[in-house]
Design a protein that fits this description.
By secondary structure, the protein is mainly α. Helix content is 71%, strand content 0%. The chain has 9 helices and no strands. 20% of the residues are buried.
């Protein structure tokens, strides 16, 4: 098998960041710590990338690093979840590894890539509502006031946007990415 370059290994590893953080969180029950654990695992990966063996997937290899970094975190912090109940910890680890298969993680990664493409196809008005609500954490009331619209109108817009994005992602998942040809997703007349 061909050896991957450091750049290739790191690129593959970074595409699994969300899944790895979720995995670490399932073991340590602290989102901030989970993010730190994954970043520490990436540092180890940067140092030891040459020891990667193509017989294993990059995801499986990095997940093992995250597992050991999580153990290290729990031991140094003497967390209640870890101290005294190794069996529970091991049960959670095994359940997570069985439920969150590499295939499921790869599907999630593809869905996120397609979602990015679909969001790019949104009209400016739809993007504004979506960004305001999900990324800026603005309430529908705040968005409605800023856009001089009713709260119900904003809720309906969000509903249409979510439906359009879901359909767009589903189309991408069913087809080859290059086969989809459709225009900009908009909210309809007056919403741009």
């Amino acid at each position: 098998m061909n050896r991957l370059s450091q750049t290739e290994v790191m690129k593959q590893a970074f595409q699994y960041e969300s899944a790895l953080v979720s995995y670490a969180y399932s073991l340590c029950r602290d989102w901030s710590a989970a993010e730190d654990i994954v970043h520490e695992a990436y540092l180890v990966l940067m140092e030891k990338w040459e020891s990667y063996s193509p017989e294993y997937s990059v995801y499986t290899w990095v997940r093992k690093m995250v597992y050991f970094k999580t153990l290290e975190y729990l031991r140094t912090r003497s967390r209640a979840i870890f101290s005294g109940d190794n069996d529970l910890f091991e049960s959670v680890r095994v359940a997570m590894e069985m439920e969150v298969s590499e295939e499921a993680v790869n599907r999630y990664v593809m869905q996120m890539k397609h979602l990015d493409k679909c969001v790019e196809q949104l009209g400016s008005g739809a993007k504004d509502v979506l960004v305001s609500y999900y990324w800026k954490n603005q309430s529908c009331s705040d968005i409605a006031a800023r856009l001089k619209r009713s709260v119900n109108s904003v809720w309906l817009s969000l509903s249409r946007i979510r439906k359009s994005l879901k359909e767009c992602v589903e189309r991408y998942m069913k087809n080859q990415p290059g086969e989809i040809a459709f225009g900009t997703i908009s909210l309809g007349s007056g919403d741009e």
